[in-house]
Amino acid sequence: MEAKTITRERTEIERRIDIIEEDIAKIDVRLLKLLLQDKTTKKNILWCTTDYENLGSVYDEHNQILLEAITGLFYNVIQPRAAKSKEIQEMRSKKRAEVFTPSWVCNDQNNLIDDAWFGRKDVFNRPKGQTAWIATEGKIEFPEGKTWRQYVDDKRLEITCGEAPYLVSRYDTTTGDLIPPFARVGLFDRKMRIVTENCEMDDEWMKWSMRALKSVYGYEFQGDSVLIARENLLYDYIDYYKERFHAEPSLNLLREVANIIAWNIWQMDGLKYVVPYSCHDEETIDRQLSFADWDKPAERKPCPGCAKGDIHLHNGIYCRIFDWTNKCKSIPFISLFKKEEA
Ligand SMILES: C[S@@+](CC[C@H](N)C(=O)[O-])C[C@H]1O[C@@H](n2cnc3c(N)ncnc32)[C@H](O)[C@@H]1O
Question: Does a structural domain hold residue 294?
Fold first, then answer.
């Protein structure tokens, strides 16, 4: 593989919050391979950012993220946004509107969802000043007619999820400050609190922690952010497992968890619901063949969905998500949106 060697020292923020792909590969190469999978194409996710192209052709934005390109000598290629240089942060903001939401804002907005669900305020935490919060004490009570199981199963999606700060809050994506598990505010974190408070038996905890994981979804365009979001979810799950069992999860469990995450956090162009860059020009086939014009170059038409701005007409690869309910099968994400009658 041709690529420039990385000799950069890791910054203080990186040392604090960054998950090193090399460490995951050392635990188990299959685990990192799973986290790189694109379940729709059955290949790896794509870079979909030009930020790494100066490192060599393997980092071209249209290429898959190869395991060898982010491990070994290249172990510190991928960094979370908080650890990226100001120039790179600004470039990503300009190009892809990448601005990550501070944890206290995620908390305020996630609280609104729970206020509505529970029919009361301050269920998981109370604000302390404008930018901090204090976790509520004691077991959370459920309103009449609603159960903790329904809360865990209710689906949540973070659109254009970046590093997924609305789903998990291991660290503040804007400052890089680490957040201890009891004070985390993500949608998945909240479900895990409910699971831990309600499952006395270990096998029950295992079953419901997996259901919590299967109920949270996110999609994102840029491949490095997709990978970081997946890693954040994996490490968040491990934190809760370790708190519960005071032991490391088994490799089999980690692979099962990583497989769910690879389905539920997926790479997609959210304006088209397809795999990024998969829409393409089509050769027109209605060209009249005659001796006179048989050697004329074929005319090319753009993707009909892109040309008409119609999400149902793209010729790219529509992304698939997994329906973990009894149906247990993958479905195109776009099938969740009804076609408008012409
Ligand atoms: C404002 S950031 C929000 C990230 C995260 N949800 C947060 O609140 O911190 C917008 C995100 O949208 C992503 N994005 C931009 N265009 C997109 C597209 N067409 N499809 C999917 N994601 C896109 C960017 O890569 C970036 O991560």
Answer: yes
- Domain assignment present for residue 259? The answer is no
Q: Residue whose CA is closest, atom 16 of ligand 1?
A: 96
Task: Please give the full DSSP string across 75-125, using - where no structure is assigned.
Answer: TTS---GGGS-HHHHHHHHHHH---PPPHHHHHHHHHHHHHHHHTSS-SSE
Q: Are residues 112 and 216 in the same domain?
A: yes
pLDDT tens digits along 145-169: 999 999 999 999 999 999 999 999 9
Query: Which domain-ending residue is among 96, 127, 151?
Result: 96
**Backbone phi, psi, residue 178, to 5°:** -75, 145
For residue 264, give the amino acid letter.
Answer: N
* Burial (CB count within 10 angstroms: exposed 0-12, middle 13-18, buried 19+), residue 292: exposed
312 φ, ψ to 5°? -90, -5
Q: How many separate domains does the chain show?
A: 3
pLDDT digits (tens, 9 = 90+) for 26-47: 889 999 999 999 999 999 999 9
Residues 139 and 74 in one domain: no
From atom 12 of ligand 1, which residue's Cα is the shortest distance away? Answer: 160
Residues 82 and 136 in one domain: no
Which residue has its alpha carbon closest to ligand 1 atom 4?
162
The residue segments making up the domain with residue 19 are: 12-96
Tell me whether residue 274 is in a domain. Answer: no
The Å distance, Cα 223 to ligand 1 centre, comes to 11
Give me 320's structure tokens.
Answer: 């698939």
**Which residue among 160, 226, 271 has the greatest number of ligand 1 atoms within 8 angstroms of its CB, and so is best to mutate?**
160
Task: Identify whether 271 is part of a domain.
Answer: no
- Taking residue 18's Cβ as centre, other Cβ atoms within 10 Å add up to 21
